[in-house]
Design a protein that fits this description.
405 residues, alpha+beta, Nucleoside Triphosphate Pyrophosphohydrolase, Hypothetical protein af1432, 2 domains, 4-stranded mixed β-sheet, 15 helices, disordered N terminus
Amino acid sequence: MNDPHAEAWDLYDQDGNPLRRRASRGDSLEPGEYHRVVQVWVRNRNGEYLIQKRTEHVAFHPGIWATTAGSVVAGEDSRSAAIRELAEELGIHADPSELEQVLQRLRGDSIGIAWLLERDVAANEIRLQPDEVADVKWATPAEIRRMVENQAFYDYESDYFDTVFSHPSRHGNSPPGHSIQRAAALPPEHPSTGARNATISNAIEFLIELEKLKRVERRSYPIGMSRRENSAEHSWSLAVGALTLAPMVDPELNLARILEMVIVHDIVEIDAGDTFCYADQTGKQEKEERAARRIFGILPEPQAERFLGIWHEFEAKATREALFAHALDRIFPLLQNYHSRGCTWRENGVSYDQVLERNKAIRDGSDDLWQYALEIIQSAVKQGWLPTRTDLQKDGADDGCSPGP
């Protein structure tokens, strides 16, 4: 470090692991050394992004439009850096829980981490950093791409823009089809220290992201309750079900692997939402694949690939353990419907034929569970909780269903 007053950076390898050494701005990094930088995108309800024009006298890319960006200084995590850059350059103060990580990538000698803040920022909230920022404005993705073509906007590359601009909105209107409710603010991140291990920091970011699964609402009702179940509760039920049922059904099943799959399988719903199993499934696979790569990509390698592999194994139903995990995924909603007098079925006009077809996957995982499922289905029909197709044509769905005790 030649200049003791220069901005200091922690250094990492290409997988984001800390190298336990530092460099200063202006230093030449050795091959295999990288420092972290952040880009912060602010998006409003109209799907527009708050972009800023760099002043003419800055050292890098003077006069060019870009998003808020800067280096992660030594002892700082990327989320804290994103919050700091927003405050310094635009005077916007964000809570850690408002920021969502969109992507992480290598480019040159840096590891770039993009963050998204969704907020309708008012003009009186913005305080420009005079030596860095000359102007700000809202722009649509199409306008930004045209500015890139005209060399008026910094080119982060096409695939980068694709990922940022397609990231699901909390407001549900940009891009369409992703409606995620805003949760109460999470506690602030724990204080960062110069000795923080970047791998642990990424893992904590991932765990904070998983809190959002608790606000993804499913169609089923927990037994004895009038509110709907969330996806985190569903995953917990499957985990307990695996612990209880797998040794009974087949002692040779790899219980640890089943637990991994049922815990991980619905994490993608943070971005993709819960698709009702009796609704049109068009586009579901593509949305969930994008979600898996973004969310698991928060983790460092090789953990990110491990989580992605667990999820892919579940989706492909390629192993006995995956088939049993799918059987659990089917039987719990079946139990909930039966013990709520078929409430979700009747609310959504689901027929006996649909339920029978949907739950055939249970048979692939366990003959014993399939026989139990058939008994439940037949009993539900006899008690009038599961209508036949003829009943539905005559009476329609039941809007007045009450699932509570």
